[in-house]
UniProtKB/TrEMBL annotation, chains A, B:
NCBIfam families found in the cross-reference section: mevalon_kin (TIGR00549)
Top-rank lineage group of the source organism: Eukaryota
Role description: Catalyzes the phosphorylation of mevalonate to mevalonate 5-phosphate, a key step in isoprenoid and cholesterol biosynthesis.
The organism's taxonomic lineage, starting at the top: Eukaryota, Metazoa, Chordata, Craniata, Vertebrata
Protein's UniProt name: Mevalonate kinase
Amino acid sequence: MWRRELAVSAPGKVILHGEHAVVLGKVALAVALDLRTFLRLRPGAEGRLSVSLPGVGVRRSWDSPGLRALRGRIAADEDESKSPSVEQLDALREFAGIAAGASAPESLATLAFLYMCLAISAKYGDVPSVEIVVWSELPTGAGLGSSAAYAVCLAAALLMVCGAISCPLQEGESTSRWTEEELTLINSWAFRGERVIHGNPSGVDNAVGTWGGALRYQAGKITPLKRVPTLRILLTNTKVPRSTKTLVAGVKEKILKFPAIMNPVLDSIDAISQECQSVLEAMPANPSPEHYPVLEEFFDINQHHLNVLGVGHPSLDRLCQVTASHSLHSKLTGAGGGGCGITLLPPDTSPLAVEAAKQDLCACGFECWETKIGAPGVTLHSCSSLSAQVLHALAQS
Amino acid sequence: MWRRELAVSAPGKVILHGEHAVVLGKVALAVALDLRTFLRLRPGAEGRLSVSLPGVGVRRSWDSPGLRALRGRIAADEDESKSPSVEQLDALREFAGIAAGASAPESLATLAFLYMCLAISAKYGDVPSVEIVVWSELPTGAGLGSSAAYAVCLAAALLMVCGAISCPLQEGESTSRWTEEELTLINSWAFRGERVIHGNPSGVDNAVGTWGGALRYQAGKITPLKRVPTLRILLTNTKVPRSTKTLVAGVKEKILKFPAIMNPVLDSIDAISQECQSVLEAMPANPSPEHYPVLEEFFDINQHHLNVLGVGHPSLDRLCQVTASHSLHSKLTGAGGGGCGITLLPPDTSPLAVEAAKQDLCACGFECWETKIGAPGVTLHSCSSLSAQVLHALAQS
C-alpha cells in the first residue's frame, strides 16, 4: 500500500541540430528542455485508482476489481516487443469508453495511463490505490516531447508504486534521481506508453525525458552525451501549424530533384551536429565564454541549411530577424514550416535585452518562454519543494 | 588614315553563381550584363590623338611625334606575357604626369589608354590620329567589370584603327560583330589593358566583355557556354562599400575553422553552378517557363550558402526581403558584404510588379537598374543606331 505524497517530473525536448537530416541517416542532437511535466502521486481511497489531467480536462477513477479483470485480458498474451497490441488497445478503449480511432489528446492520454498502469502492475505487483495528477508546462502538439514527458512521469511513478524501482527520496530531501538501471527500466516503459500515443515513435523523446541533458541520435541508435552544460534559451512557438509528414516528404523530393546540390547540405548539417557535440562536451570542463559565439554560428548556419531544405517559414524568418535585432541567434527546431524556434541566451546577455526580445516576439503573436536546455531527466520531488505555480496547477484537478 | 565615325560597345559582367567558391577551385558562371560601355571613334586632326572619358573627367590629347618617341621606349623590350612591365608603366606615368601609385580611376584609365594605344600601334601600325570618347552605363568599383568593358572597347577600336582586325560594319548596317579569331585578339589585348588597371586580374571580366553570353570559369580555365538565353533581371547596388580582400580572407578563415561544415557548402555551390549551366544551355532549344522556378530556387539556395560563408550583409537581406515581397528571387553577386544583388525577372512578371519592386528598392537607398544578362559581347555600331541617351553622354566630352 503506497503511503507517501510525492511528485515526479520529466523534461520536454528540443532538437538542437540535425532535424530532417536525421531521417536520412545523419546525426541529430536532442536536448532536454526545462519546461517540465509534473506528476503528483498520493495514496488514494482503498480500492480506487484515479487520474486527473487538468490541462486536457481528464478526471477519471476506477475500482480495483474492474481493473484487475481487465488486466487479465491485457496481460494474457504479453510479448513486450509487440506491446501494446491492437487487441490490448481495443480492450482498453472499450473499458474506458473511448471510440475506436479517437485521437484527441485526452483520449490518448487516458489510454496510455490505463495501459501502463495495468501492464506494469501485472508484471510487478497489484493494481495500486493511488491518486495521480499530471500537469505540464509544455504545450502539446508543438514537437516538444510533451507526450514522452507524460509517459516518463507515469512509468517512474507506477514502477515505484509497484516496487519495481526504489523510492530514492530520503525524508527531508527535496529532489532525488534513480540509478542508471532504474532509469533504463523507466525509459523502456515510457517508450511503450509513447507507442500508445504515437504508434511508432523514434524513442528519442522518452530517452531525453528519462536521462535529460543531451543525446545523440543516428540511424536508430541513441547515445546520451557524457556531461553537458545547462544553456539558457528562449523557446518561441510561432503557433503556425504544420504537417511534419508533408515537410519530410518535401525534403525528400528536393533531394531527389537536386541530389548534387542537396546531399552536401545534409553532410554539412551532420558535421554541425558532431562539432556541436564536441563543444557541448568540452564546456563543463572548460566553461569559457568563447564557446557561445561558436554555438551561435552553428545556429545561424543550420538555420540557413534548413531553409535550403525547404522547411523554413516567414514566421521563422521573422523570429530570427527579431532576435537578431537584439544580437541574439536563433534557429527553428523540429519539423519547421512554422512551429518552434530556439534562441541562445549567452551568459553575458543583459536581462533587459532578453525582456525586450521576449516582448518583440510576443508582439509578433508568438508565445515565448525563457527556459534552459540540458535540463535534468526524470526527477523525484518532495511536494513541498515544488513551486507555488506548479502546486497550484496540480491542485486544480 | 581612319575615316569613319563608329562606336564600339562592350557589356559588364555579373557572377551568376560561384563567387567565393571559385577562389577555392569550384566552378563559377559569369554572365554578360546589358549595362554597356560605349566608345565613339572619330577621325581626329592629323597628328593628334585625343581621349575623353566624361564619366571620370578625363580629357587629354597628345601629338603623334611625342607618342612615337614614347612608343620607342615602351616597345623596346616587348615580351607579351610580362607586358605591361613596371618600367613601361613608369615611363607612361612620367609622360602623362601621373604620380607613382596613383590609383584613382582617371589615372588608371589614362594609363591603360596610353599603354594599349602605344603597344597596339607599335605592333600593327602607326600611332592613329583619332578622337576617342568612352562613356559607360556601368558604375565603377561595383564589381561589374567596368574596367574590363573599357579595355575591351579600347582593344577593339585600336586594333581596328591599326588594321589588325577588320571593320565588319557594312554601310547601312546598324551593328556588327567580329570573327572568333578577331575576338580572341581583342580579348588578349583587353586582358593586357586590364592588367594595367588591376595588376593581376582573372581574365574573366574581359572574356565576358568580349564574348558576351555566359562563361564557365574554374581553376583559371575560361570556357564560353555554347548558347545561352537572355534573361531579364534587376541589378541593385546597395551602395554599401566592402573590401573584397577582407571578405575572401574571412571565407578562408571560416573554412579552416570548420572544414567539415564548410567544405560541403562549397561542393553544393559547385553543383549549383553546374546545374545552372545545364539549365541555361537547355533553355534556347526549349524555352519553357518551367526553367524559371529552377533558376529562382538556385538563387535562393546560393544566397543562403553565401550567408553561411559569411559574405552576406543586412543590406542584402533587405534586398532579398523586398524583392521576395513581390514574389521575386534575389542573390548577392560578386564579393558580397554589401555591393550588388541580382533579381531574376521571369517572363510572366507583371510590369507593375517590376515597377513596385524598383520603387521599394530605391526607397531603401539602393540604386536599381532593369537590365538583362546573357547580353552580346563586344559590338560595332553605326553611331546613328545608338540611343539618344548614349549619344548625348558621348557628346558631353
